Protein: EamA-like transporter family protein
Amino acid sequence: MSRAVHPDTPSPTSTTPLTPATASTRLKALTVPAMLAIGGFVSVQSLINGQLAAGLGTGLRAGALAAVISFGSGLVLLTAWVLLHRPSGRRLRGLYRGVRAGHVPLQLLLGGLFGAAFVASQGLATGLLGVALFIVCFVAGQSVTALLVDHFGWGPSGRTAISLPRLFGAVLAVVAAVLSGVQVGLSSTSVTPALVLTAALPLLAGAGTSIQQGMNGRVAVHAGPWPTTWNNFLVGTAGLLVFLALSFLAPGELVGLPGQWWLYLGGLFGIAFISLSTVMVRIHGVLVLGLWAVAGQVVAAVVIDLVVAPEELGPLSWVAAGLTLVGVLGAMTLRARGVR
Structure:
């Protein structure tokens, strides 16, 4: 006799699961702009959270508070949506029932901690590195780790072996990161240990983002994008509150809340790229999503620095941006021609 399933409990299987193998070519083509937008949202959020941290004060506590404001505001908006949108509320309750029933591994709900680390790194590192260098370092960590996430089957689409097109795109992203680092060195008096350590923050954040996308994609199979996004913001906000408390052990000060309204929009952009990513990763896989998002990230980052801090840009910055785009388009072309 089959076991009865509660109507709010997400099913571990579906009749036609959406994966890169089952998604149509038309669907993949139509969703490319959404992946580019994800990358653009990441760059804009990096600018906002970096500026917010600078306006809040100095030291770790300013970056931590900026991250709490960004994640916390997103959590408030998502909570209102889940309460008002009954299907999302039912699926959220079903998600936690699925965890208790063993359909959803508990560790998959912790992806929000990686998102929290990324948002915290924005407040801590963007001011020193500039948006362009921050994003390219983020891209390097994201691209390399995405290869591993797909290769080991940590995402919703199962194992996807490392191939020449995938390696091509990831390697060019890393080369672009190195060139951007050299550009900062040429425009500064010296490359200090502090600069290197700061650049490591977005590198590690990018690695965590690829793992987060894989985890979120698997959760979304059971619960859909909105409950998955809400859970991310809940877990991330909790982690950031702990980080904020610990940050008061380090030097720094808070001077008050900045008056510019746009500095409080980081949560909206976070909602946009996390919710979109939970859908796109099921259609394209972690690496392909990451490569297209790279294009959106780097182009938006260069435009932002061109407007906000043109002194941060130099010849190698443009070469680095070009290489990331060549990596994305080249990887897609090689795949389309059947190169493995």
Observations:
- The chain has one domain: 27-249+259-336.
- Residues 1-14 have pLDDT under 50 and may be disordered.
